[in-house]
Each structure stands twice: as structure tokens, then as C-alpha cells.
Specification:
The complex is a heterodimer of chains A (111) and B (114). By secondary structure, chain A is mainly β. Helix content of chain A is 0%, strand content 59%. In chain A, strand 4 (30-38) and strand 5 form a beta hairpin. In chain B, strand 5 (44-50) and strand 6 form a beta hairpin. Chain B is globular, with a radius of gyration of 13 Å. Chain B is an all-beta fold and 114 residues long. In chain B, 0% of the residues lie in helices and 48% in strands. The chains are: A mainly beta (111), B mainly beta (114). Chain A binds chain B through residues 4, 31-32, 34, 36, 41-46, 49, 51, 87, 89, 91, 93, 95-99, 101-104, and chain B through 4, 6, 31, 33, 40-45, 48, 50, 55-56, 91, 93, 95, 97-108, 110.
Amino acid sequence: EDQVTQSPEALRLQEGESSSLNCSYTVSGLRGLFWYRQDPGKGPEFLFTLYSAGEEKEKERLKATLTKKESFLHITAPKPEDSATYLCAVQAGDSWGKLQFGAGTQVVVTP
Amino acid sequence: EAEVAQSPRYKITEKSQAVAFWCDPISGHATLYWYRQILGQGPELLVQFQDESVVDDSQLPKDRFSAERLKGVDSTLKIQPAELGDSAMYLCASSSRGVGGEQYFGPGTRLTVT
């Protein structure tokens, strides 16, 4: 059965204090690994798709990397506006395209 | 920038009543998804449409939930009768392609069943 586990559950950072979020997964035939950002009371906002081990993508202060068993979301010099829940999801090769999500990591960045 | 539209944004209903949610995907997106998200958890797929056809409804509680996308554009998700355990955020997403494609989410409908 496909599984996605995110850690830590919550992360509190000082502004400028870089850190990494982890997403470990087991899936039959990975078609893609997706990162989303979700603000309270809103729908998830798409950030990145990674398709193969070794792939990296960047957007502003965020960088996502992928290995065969896990993905990392690195936040460099975070600002308070980076506070959100970050969701990781996988898409299996034997699915029609549904995303299997982890429970998310809640990030709070204080000034 | 094109967005997924959902209505209503909030809905409060009593248990045993019927409730319906509406979704209008990004123009041209053939694939439409309905997810349910319980507070503190990630979204879980309820049903997936490819054009007007259901391709995955394995997690849809079919005794009380129904979904349709009659003309392959907008979609409606219905619950009848609603139960206390249905309280959650209902999210609609669309994609230009199924496997491998990014899914773009709407703002969601927050349902509270009393």
C-alpha cells in the first residue's frame, strides 16, 4: 500500500534560520512527487513536481530534492510569510492520477 | 491567472439533511478531482473524473455521496443524508492531464454538520 510520512509534524523557526522538511514514501512505480503549500482555511497551492531521483527544483527560498525513498524541502533564510503547512504527495504508476498525501508539516516563522 | 472556483465557501447543515457543493475547473482541464480534508490531515481522494466519466470512485461512500460532471466541465458533489463525521473541508482540483500532471486546487468548501 502506498504510504507518505512527513516529519517533523511542526517546526518553529526564527526568521533567517534555515531548515529542512522530510517526506518519506513507499509507492508502486512513482510517477511524480508533489509539494504544496497550504495556508489556514485555504486550498493547497502547487509548488513543485519531481519525477526522478536526483532531480532538484527551486523557487525563491524553497528548494525540493528527491531520492528513491524520500524528498526534502529546504527553506533557506525563511521569512514570516513562509509560515504555512507544507504538504507532500505521491502519484503512483498504477493510479489514474490521484495524489496520496502526507499529513503535512506546519511551519511557523517568527520575526 | 486561471483558478478553480468552488461554492459555497462555507456550509452549515444539520445531520440527515442534504448538501451539495459545486466546482468549476480551470478552462480546458479534462481531469477533475474531489478531495476531502479532515483538520490536521492531508486531503484524501473521493472521486476523479476524466471528462464526464468517473475513473476512480473507490473511496467514495456511495451510500450517501454522489458526484456528477454531466458536460465534462463543472461538477457537483452531493451528500444525502449528511452525518456528523462528514464535517471537513471539501476540495476540488483540476489538471490538464491525469498521471504526471500538476493538480490545481480551489479554495474549498468548509462543511460543518450539527
